[in-house]
């Protein structure tokens, strides 16, 4: 697992769980010109990219909160290695769950001095973050999650905004707050959470749900809709829940 030092913005690889330090983690919607793992190894080059502000700001927030390390999916996965990419995708739910804190950066949301995030018609309720496939697991897995507005000011926590989140995502607050186990929620209900969400790659519709169903499987970009079929087969192998057929 690669982690980014929040002070130096340099990468370090931790190969075992026992060596891994406490870390923060970022959830966000990808934009144009994101900073990759290769980019971040040359800071002068990385700073010229539009996405570097997201990296530097998330490091600053985490550092201010006392965290020396942060994981950011754009620059902490070597996407040139299919093996490392597959490992990261299969481990991602666990990584979000094991993080000390998750910062969800909502680039299209006004801060709370401009509007009440829980109010009807707020930019928080309509954020694109709630429409993306990968952010579903990034919402559920962490125990501690802070929402940050487009100017990086805090909007609230998953707990303080639980009622709004339940309303927007249709995920019960008991699940969001880890008061109810995911395994106690029917497969059909968990599938329904993703119904209105989208991914850029068709395969990611399946891969982004693996953690939600405690499934591990190889990632094969190029297989298209077959990825979702494989996901359903893996779920059926592990669960007696027949609601998947209703879905």
Automatic annotation (TrEMBL):
Start and end residues of each Heterokaryon incompatibility domain: 23-113
Superkingdom to which the source organism belongs: Eukaryota
Every DUF8212 domain range: 226-247
Signal peptide: none
InterPro entries per the UniProt record, alphabetical: DUF8212, HET
Protein name: HET-domain-containing protein
Organism: Lentinus brumalis
């Amino acid at each position: 697992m690669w982690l980014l030092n929040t002070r130096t913005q340099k990468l370090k690889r931790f190969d075992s769980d026992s060596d891994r330090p406490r870390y923060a983690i970022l959830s966000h919607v990808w934009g144009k010109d994101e900073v990759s793992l290769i980019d971040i190894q040359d800071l002068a080059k990385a700073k010229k990219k539009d996405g570097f502000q997201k990296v530097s700001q998330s490091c600053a927030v985490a550092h201010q909160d006392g965290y020396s390390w942060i994981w950011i999916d754009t620059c902490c996965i070597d996407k040139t290695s299919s093996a490392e990419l597959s490992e990261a995708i299969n481990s991602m739910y666990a990584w979000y769950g094991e993080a000390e804190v998750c910062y969800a950066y909502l680039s299209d949301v006004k801060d709370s001095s401009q509007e009440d995030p829980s109010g009807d018609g707020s930019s928080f309720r309509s954020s694109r973050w709630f429409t993306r496939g990968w952010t579903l697991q990034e919402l559920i897995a962490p125990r501690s999650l802070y929402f940050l507005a487009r100017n990086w000011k805090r909007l609230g926590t998953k707990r303080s905004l639980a009622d709004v989140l339940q309303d927007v995502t249709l995920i019960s607050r008991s699940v969001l707050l880890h008061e109810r186990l995911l395994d106690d929620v029917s497969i059909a209900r968990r599938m329904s959470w993703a119904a209105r969400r989208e991914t850029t790659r068709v395969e990611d519709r399946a891969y982004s749900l693996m953690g939600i169903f405690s499934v591990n499987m190889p990632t094969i970009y190029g297989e298209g809709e077959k990825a979702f079929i494989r996901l359903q087969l893996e779920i059926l192998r592990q669960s007696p829940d027949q609601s998947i057929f209703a879905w």
